């Protein structure tokens, strides 16, 4: 299934199909063969889909610890509500960033007023040890830096690139960017040699160093690269993620990123007992139940 191209050294991992409620998703991270890329530890791709009366995104309140959730849309809208009382209505090109720290609960839904489209990605960033028990926070970024490279436009989601810096809160060396191609000419992006990187094609055809990148696949390109030479068909889009290799061993279960099984069990118990996380008062309906702890490996995150 996964293959490493001997010439380029690119490791290509097809995403796994799963579902979140009624929405079909492709899970690119974590995979058994690759758990993380820098601090990025979760990548779900959903859509594009069109809808009329139903509400495709409806993730009831659920808890998180030890991570940041990064919500990014190519089309459509999502409204976030959390146990701090924050509401974040997000449109395509905007960023909802939730820093769970010690603990927070949130819901994500298609808002009542919507465009009838949904197309996006949901990512998680693991927080390093010194920050993972900090107080939770939520930030909505209505606009992000854009870098015009003529053949393509780069939107800097998190981290810095080409002299621009995203305002998104970050706690370890990280980069996240969306590259939208306008014309099929190669562009070159400088990379930090000490960061590892991966690419995920969001739309259209994208090539790296004249090698076409399969869709629905995480392409891990490793570290020790000075630059990235890529090209894309008109209106194609690519997601670049990367960062300093994460030095701590993480334990992931359901929506928790921790270090030990005991921390996971405690967070689960706190959710069941209505401790620690607070309530998402803005959500109409029941919250998600914690899965059985015996289902340790397959517990499906609610993203
Ligand atoms: Mn979530």
Task: Give a written overview of the molecule.
- This protein is mainly beta and 303 residues long.
- It has a single domain (3-243), classed as Jelly Rolls, CATH 2.60.120.10.
- It is built from one helix and 26 strands.
- It has one helix at residues 261-272, and strands at residues 3-4, 11-14, 16-20, 23-29, 40-50, 58-64, 67-82, 87-91, 95-99, 104-109, 117-126, 137-141, 146-148, 152-158, 160-161, 164-165, 174-181, 187-190, 196-203, 206-208, 211-212, 217-222, 227-232, 237-243, 251-253, 256-258.
- The model has no long low-confidence stretch (mean pLDDT 95).
- The structure holds manganese (II) ion.
- The site of manganese (II) ion (MN) has 7 residues, from strand 6.
Write the layout of secondary structure elements.
Blueprint: E1 3-4, E2 11-14, E3 16-20, E4 23-29, E5 40-50, E6 58-64, E7 67-82, E8 87-91, E9 95-99, E10 104-109, E11 117-126, E12 137-141, E13 146-148, E14 152-158, E15 160-161, E16 164-165, E17 174-181, E18 187-190, E19 196-203, E20 206-208, E21 211-212, E22 217-222, E23 227-232, E24 237-243, E25 251-253, E26 256-258, H1 261-272
Antiparallel strand pairs: 1-2, 2-22, 3-4, 4-5, 5-11, 6-10, 7-8, 7-9, 7-10, 7-11, 9-12, 13-14, 14-17, 15-16, 17-24, 18-23, 19-22, 19-24, 20-21, 20-23, 25-26
This protein binds manganese (II) ion (MN).
């Amino acid at each position: 299934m996964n293959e490493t191209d001997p010439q380029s050294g690119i490791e290509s991992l097809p995403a796994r199909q799963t579902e979140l409620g009624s929405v079909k998703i492709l899970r690119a991270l974590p995979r058994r063969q690759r758990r993380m890329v820098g601090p990025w530890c979760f990548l779900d791709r959903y859509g594009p889909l069109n809808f009329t009366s139903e509400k495709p995104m409806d993730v009831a309140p659920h808890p998180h610890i030890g991570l940041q959730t990064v919500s990014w849309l190519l089309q459509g809208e999502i409204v976030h509500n959390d146990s701090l009382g924050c509401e974040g209505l997000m449109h395509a090109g905007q960023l909802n960033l939730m820093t769970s720290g010690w603990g927070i609960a949130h819901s994500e839904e298609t808002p009542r007023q919507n465009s009838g489209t949904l197309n996006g990605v949901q990512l998680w960033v693991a927080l390093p040890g010194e920050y993972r028990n900090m107080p939770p926070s939520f930030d909505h970024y209505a606009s992000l830096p854009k870098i015009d490279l003529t053949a393509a436009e780069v939107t800097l989601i998190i981290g810095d690139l080409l002299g621009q810096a995203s305002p998104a809160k970050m706690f370890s060396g990280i980069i996240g960017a969306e590259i939208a191609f306008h014309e099929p000419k190669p562009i070159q992006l400088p990379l930090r040699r000490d960061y590892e990187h991966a690419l995920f094609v969001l739309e259209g055809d994208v090539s790296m160093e004249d090698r076409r990148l399969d869709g629905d696949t995480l392409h891990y390109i490793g570290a020790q690269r000075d630059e990235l030479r890529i090209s894309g068909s008109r209106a194609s889009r690519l997601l670049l993620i990367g960062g300093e290799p994460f030095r701590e061993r993480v334990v992931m279960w359901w929506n928790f990123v921790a270090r030990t099984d005991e921390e996971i069990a405690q967070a689960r118990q706190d959710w069941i007992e209505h401790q620690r996380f607070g309530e998402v008062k803005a959500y109409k309906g029941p919250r998600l139940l914690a899965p059985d702890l015996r289902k340790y490996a397959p517990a499906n995150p609610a993203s």
